[in-house]
């Protein structure tokens, strides 16, 4: 299609019913894209089983348009955009689900913390499987660890130093030598303070590790090495989406979410493809997979367009090339590639040239002696001629 046609279709693209949108928006700010988002996340969960380690973190879709829940996250590459609380496989970086951030939520006094509620909603499909959940310091808390323990899940994550549950002596780092580790054990829970450099430390909470194992080579405790190994599940997924992105400039936030779903679907499809084709040539890189995927999605529509009798010849040839269809050889169309002297004018000693030719003898014809005839009449003429020859 032409670029103007593509822009027109993009401009008309909608994901919900406009007649009921205002009513649904009173209850849900995400109403304009909620149905599409739920359909996609359900399919992500139904078509894949995550490994024993998953990561929960924030994803930011770059967006500069007007949106009531646009965020500014200086730690992210895009800075401004639409935030999604995502859960990904820590080994394969498969996008397993996400919750769009639609603004600040109020919490009742006896309710769980907002980050804890996000994590519990995301890990609901894997509850009771003894998997480990890796989180950063915005999610990690003693409350989350206890809630996940009830759901038969493990937790490893960094902990903020301003948490009330952190003992004061675990924050003291003055005069401590580098690579110092201190452990604090509780029932089915371990808190450690690791000082990699002078006067700086990091707190890590773990319900998965109970021992005080330290690597003799790196001088790092087991909890730190495990966290570094599994913390990048969402970040790597975000990087893969940026590497080959389908995003186009838009001021409509539902369309930006749609572009994000396309990128996530491409990453997830490649992960499933690698799992199902372990003997595949390693040279089959992700860019080639995305190109093949795009053409396979286009194939049904291309077959329909290829049968259109009014399609331009050059566009029809392009479609046949993509579909790898051998073009059907037809009778000469009556058009020459080169100008030639007219056969009738030559007999009258007149020098006229033309680009048309006779469909039988292929002689050149000028505009005066050219005769146009439709395919139906041409077929009737051929049948009559064959009958006369048989007689």
> If you compute it from the alpha carbons, what radius of gyration comes out, rounded to the nearest whole angstrom?
33 Å
Portion in helices: 25-40%
Report the β-strand fraction as a percent range. Answer: 15-25%
Shape: elongated
Order of H and E elements: HHHEEEEHEHEEEEHHHHHEHEEH
- In DSSP terms, counting alpha (H) and pi (I) runs of 4 or more, how many helices? 12
From the helix content, strand content and strand pairing, which structural class follows?
A: alpha+beta
The tally of beta strands, per DSSP, is: 12
Q: What low-confidence regions span 5 or more consecutive residues with pLDDT below 50?
A: 331-336
Largest sheet: 9 strands, mixed
Distance between the termini: 52 Å
Mean pLDDT: 86
């Amino acid at each position: 299609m032409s670029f103007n046609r593509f822009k027109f279709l993009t401009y008309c693209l909608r994901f919900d019913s406009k007649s009921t949108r205002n009513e649904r928006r009173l209850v849900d700010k995400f109403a304009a894209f909620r149905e599409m988002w739920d359909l996609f996340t359900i399919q992500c969960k139904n078509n894949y089983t995550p490994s024993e380690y998953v990561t929960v973190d924030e994803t930011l879709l770059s967006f500069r348009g007007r949106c009531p829940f646009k965020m500014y996250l200086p730690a992210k590459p895009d800075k401004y955009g639409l935030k999604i609380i995502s859960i990904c496989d820590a080994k394969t970086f498969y996008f397993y689900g996400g919750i769009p951030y639609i603004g600040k939520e109020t919490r009742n006094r006896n309710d769980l913390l907002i980050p804890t509620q996000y994590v519990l909603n995301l890990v609901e499909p894997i509850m009771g499987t003894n998997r480990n959940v890796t989180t950063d310091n915005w999610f990690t808390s003693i409350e989350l660890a206890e809630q996940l323990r009830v759901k038969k899940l493990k937790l490893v994550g960094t902990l903020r130093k301003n948490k009330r549950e952190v003992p004061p002596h675990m924050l003291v780092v003055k005069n401590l030598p580098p690579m110092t580790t201190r452990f604090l054990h509780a029932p089915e829970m371990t808190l450690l303070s690791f000082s990699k450099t002078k006067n700086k430390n990091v707190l890590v909470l773990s319900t998965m590790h109970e021992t005080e194992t330290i690597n003799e080579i790196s001088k790092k405790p087991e909890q730190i090495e495990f966290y570094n190994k599994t913390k990048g599940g969402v970040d790597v997924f975000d990087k893969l989406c940026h590497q080959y992105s389908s995003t186009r400039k838009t001021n409509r936030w539902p369309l930006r979410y749609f572009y994000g779903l396309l990128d996530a679907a491409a990453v997830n499809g490649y992960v499933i493809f690698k799992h199902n084709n372990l003997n595949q040539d390693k040279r089959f890189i992700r860019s080639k997979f995305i190109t093949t995927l795009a053409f396979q999605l286009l194939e049904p529509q291309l077959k329909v367009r290829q049968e259109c009798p009014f399609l331009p010849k050059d566009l029809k040839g392009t479609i046949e090339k993509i579909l790898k269809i051998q073009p059907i050889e037809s009778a000469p169309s009556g058009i020459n590639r080169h100008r030639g002297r007219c056969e009738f004018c030559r007999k009258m000693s007149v020098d006229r040239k033309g680009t048309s030719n006779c469909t039988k003898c292929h002689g050149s014809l000028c505009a005066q002696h050219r005769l146009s005839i439709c395919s139906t009449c041409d077929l009737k003429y051929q049948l009559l001629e064959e009958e006369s020859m048989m007689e």
